[in-house]
Amino acid sequence: MKKCPIAIVLMLSLLLLLCSPASADTITAMAIEINPEHLEKTASYARILGYNADSNTLTVELIVPEVFDYHDIEALQPGDSIYTDGHEVLIQTIEVNDWGTYTINHEDKWGYVFLLKDLNGDYRTGCDDDYVWRTVAVIECPVKDSLLFLDYINEGDGGMVELPFVRTLDEFLDRLENSPYKFAANNVYVVFDGEGNLVTIHRYYVPWG
Known about the structure:
Structural class: alpha+beta
Radius of gyration: 25 Å
Shape: elongated
Order of helices and strands: HEEEEHEEEEEEEEEEHEE
């Protein structure tokens, strides 16, 4: 007879365990695939921070958009958290439109997160008509005379051109110093050759640039 209270306690404990809500999840962005120590045959988004005449190098910040695995995003529930742009956001509400775009905490300007599906089916975080960017590394790139600058911006009106202007190193350096369309507005990608040397700089049109 003395065993009955123990059995009841064990049963109640089991029921509480089964009925308790699942623990909340905190999701983080996917790992960065670019290795700044090995840039051979690599293309990367970048910001060109400046030219160093004494060393004949460019200071280049390699950047990548913050990307979340679609499995993680599509499994989110209120009560979960998402670590984005350097801080953790508790998810209170989730809205999904017909295009698969996620809006988290729509009414909370401090906890608002916007996620857009990319070409791979994963999700990028958006902020002020741009993506949220993560810094891979800031590196010094030796400048070769053969460096090409492919410019998709028409400097006459700031519009986009279908095929790029092909500009020389001197033309690039002049625009880096004097162009009103900056090279640090998340509007550049760079290409490295088989030996890891910087060979081309592409500046493309962005509406905020």
